[in-house]
Amino acid sequence: MTFQFGVVALVGLGFCVSGWQAATAAWAGGAVIAAGNALFAWRLFADGIAPTRRIARSVYAAEALKWAWLALALYLAIAVIKLPFLPFVAGIAAAQVAFWISLAVIR
Hints:
Strand content: under 5%
Number of helices: 4
Radius of gyration: 15 Å
Structural class: mainly alpha
Shape: flat
Mean pLDDT: 88
Largest sheet: none
Number of strands: 0
């Protein structure tokens, strides 16, 4: 998660040229992905050590929770708060790519 925030911070600093609203939108996009990953992990490991069938249900429930969070956050950020679209999506993309890179490094 630290790597994600570092990458998103750099993207946000890049958008500072366009103004503080753009930088804030990029940082918010990254925070949405980081929070979604945290929700996923929380739900996935909520059952602790359990039978395989329950673990499989936890994976599906965690993924559904993460997607519901992403849909809600996208709606709130774009339709309600009216954050600039491009920086917001750039923050989302940067955080997700950083997550994938960190998974590749850990393996």
